[in-house]
Design a protein that fits this description.
Layout (H helix, E strand, L loop, with lengths): L1 E4 L7 E13 L1 H4 L5 E2 L18 E2 L4 E13 L5 H11 L6 H30 L4 H15 L2
Antiparallel strand pairs: 1-5, 2-3, 2-4, 2-5
Length: 147
């Protein structure tokens, strides 16, 4: 059981049992700037959107006025806020067209530089330069040129 008063932060998703002129600021969850008047006796469909669930209080929201007695229904990642956080975490950030072009360009440059480094090494090998020195030059070219 949870007893709530004005100014309290809702600690978990709650089912309201008793309310006395109880309203909650749900802006953190729904974006609605007006406080939502809660009604413990309201019958709300299980499929109702969050803003229409006036018999529930949600984690992370703040009691604005009145008082309420409630029972915890969900905690941690199982709350509405937790589910939203999980969806955000699972969302993959797509590359912008510029990022894709730069990545493609970097791959092409890398292939060309590796080709040049191998060519330098092979040239030194065929003209009988010191292999360690040619390897060092080839690696230096590759490291300095690859983005």
């Amino acid at each position: 059981m949870v007893i709530l008063q004005a100014g309290d932060k809702i600690p978990a998703d709650l089912r309201l049992l008793e309310v006395t002129d109880f309203s909650v600021n749900e802006a953190a969850l729904t974006g609605e700037s007006d406080a939502v008047q809660k009604d413990a006796s309201a019958e709300v469909s299980a499929n109702a959107v969050i803003a229409d669930r006036i018999n529930l209080a949600f984690a992370g929201t703040v009691a604005i006025k009145g008082s309420a007695v409630a029972v915890v229904t969900q905690t941690a990642q199982h709350t509405e806020v937790g589910q939203i956080a999980q969806l955000i975490k699972e969302t993959k950030e797509a590359d912008t067209p510029l990022q894709a072009q730069l990545s493609n360009f970097a791959k092409k440059i890398s292939i060309a530089v590796i080709g040049i480094a191998v060519s330098i090494f092979l040239f030194g090998f065929f003209v009988q330069h010191n292999l360690v020195e040619m390897f060092t030059v080839a690696v230096a070219v590759a490291v300095s040129a690859i983005p």
